Amino acid sequence: MLLFTASRALRAALTILFVMTFAFVVLRLSGDPALLIMSVDAPPEAIKAFREAWGLERPIWEQYLSYIGHAFTGDFGKSMRDGRPAIDLVMERVPATLAITLPALALKVGLGIPAGVYAALHRNSFADRMTMAVSVAGFTMPSFVLALLLVLLFSVNLGWLPASGADSPTYAILPIITLGASGAAIMARFTRSAMLEVLGQPYIRAASAKGVEWRRVISHHALPNAAIPTVTIIGFMIGSLVAGAVVVESVFAWPGIGRLLVSAVANRDLAVVQAILMVIATWMVLANFTVDMAYGWLDPRVRGTAAAH
């Protein structure tokens, strides 16, 4: 188990380093932030002074080594807009993002798994067909389309809920529903598929033939074995919580990381964009690492395979 954990931890660290490197290089090759922040009409002396102040005149490899060296000490640079530490600006937005993404995750799991299990246990019934039809519609509809439909219905037509802002808890309802709906649909489909596969296994038929109560067969044999592929989807959803909130936060003017990312990209605020991408990458890597650990706990064969390699 120790070797399994160490190999996954090393992979996670290398992934975060790769994301940081990729973001650094791409952002600096995409254009000169001095021209956007200072404007093209600014005097050449002012643009030159700006580049020197932020180290943009140095070779890219020298900028990269400086960035990585400071990052290991927790310094991810300062915002080119207001001079504040970039990581502070990002962490200030984390609570707002978690305020809608964590309830959305609970909605995905709380609705998706029971719906998928019920559909599998009533295969080809009317309830199964309706559940799958709703799930297909849920995960094929873009989040911004669903968000606009919810605003049109509950804000414009009915006037029940606010359309944008974050002045009270009621402002979070529509973003949570938007984020949770598609995830619940995906969860329902994968849970149904996993349950159907498990229910077709010989050991399930053997347990039923021995006279084991069907409810016990489901709870003690089918659900634990169907949990392994389901954990993958939950891990993916946890990992994509922050990244998936970008569009929704923009539509509902929610003051989270996603909205900050949009404004930082528009303003070419390199340090803030890099800090956000680092936080998102770390979040996703930690989620995948947790899933790997869960795999090793649920299925000892996974640990054996990792040890063999």
From TrEMBL:
Similarity comment: Belongs to the binding-protein-dependent transport system permease family.
Membrane protein topology class: Multi-pass membrane protein
Stretches assigned to the ABC transmembrane type-1 domain: 94-295
UniProt entry keywords in alphabetical sequence: Cell membrane, Membrane, Transmembrane, Transmembrane helix, Transport
GO molecular function: dipeptide transmembrane transporter activity
Residues passing through the membrane, by range: 12-31, 98-121, 133-156, 168-188, 226-252, 272-291
The protein, known as: ABC transporter permease
Annotated localization: Cell membrane
